[in-house]
Task: structure prediction
Amino acid sequence: MTLPRPHRVDLLVAGSGLSCGLLLWSFGLYLKTDHVFGEPWVVLIPLVVMAVMEALRRTTPRTALLVGTVAIVADQFTHGNLATVLMFTDLVYAAVVYGPPASARRIPYTTALITVAVTIGFLVWWQNAIALLVGVITGMLCFLPAVTGAIVRNHRQAADAARLRAEQTALLAEMDRTQAVVAERARMARELHDMVANHLSAIAIHSTAALSLDDPGTTRQALTVIRENSVEGLAEMRRLIGLLRDSSGDAEPAAAPTLAGVDALIAQARTNGTTSGLAFVLDDARSDGGRRLPAPVELAAYRIVQESLTNALKHAAPGEVRVVLDDGADRADRADRALTVCVTSPFGGQPGPRAPGSGAGLVGMRERVALLGGEFEAGPVASDGGRKEWRVRAVLPVGTNDKEPQAWYG
Result:
């Protein structure tokens, strides 16, 4: 077994203590005149042992203290060296600061008991007040360094704990920032897709029709729709940029879309779907003529209708596209009220030009519903007439909050 390499500072402390002890010994400066071993060189044995232990004060603090205790006891039977005593006090201090937690807790109590025992023992033996002075010196040599080491260790542990808390706080802050950035990117992606995809799909469909059909009237009608969708798409992009930029020049951010704009969506879809043989119908079963719901619910419902109509323009076979809105006003339990959005369209291959899809629209709709704690399903179902339909159905919790919520743009 190899001993750990001594620390550079410990080697410096050991060398300094040994040099001072040798200097005192060379001048014949001792702590006492009465002794058991009369030879002056005997003083050097505890001095050298204590210096060696000083070199190990940080790597093996408990062993250094035990051997140092034996050396300080042996020093009492010689002339005594001040450097040996001072190095022993440093060993006590180092054992508390660098030793295991159990030793750091026990050493102060042990040195306190030793101080009390030495004081009482000398009082009984000498029956003189000088015994109190011996007790004070004993306390200064062992108890005081132990208490000092305990204070220093506690301060270091408190500083380490504070640094760890600061690092954890910084890590949590970075995680929160990262999550906020990811959430904001997802929100921007949903908004960009919902606001622009409808117009771009119409442009793609009608431009393909204009290139495929050699009919001036159809071409002119397609170009008209393309221009309208281009202008509206550009306006939507500018509104989105206005929400994202602080210095966009707008006096205030654009208002979030609401269900009041569903009629405009249906009208636009009718215009864009004329060449695809699609008929668009709105079945608004909401109470009170469409009473305003919480802003997040209205925005999510609007975007779901918008994306469903866009998907119908891209993929639906000729037929009827029906949009149903129901806020559940006839339910007895108002706490369970929810806005149901259901969009059905003919399922099957669309003849003529089609716009490609990426599937991002379904992901965005599902995310919007999940953020509100609702239910979402999309897929083919069998209609009453036995024909397959593609149905998008979202249930958005409303509750009983009749107060107008703050504007919400996510």
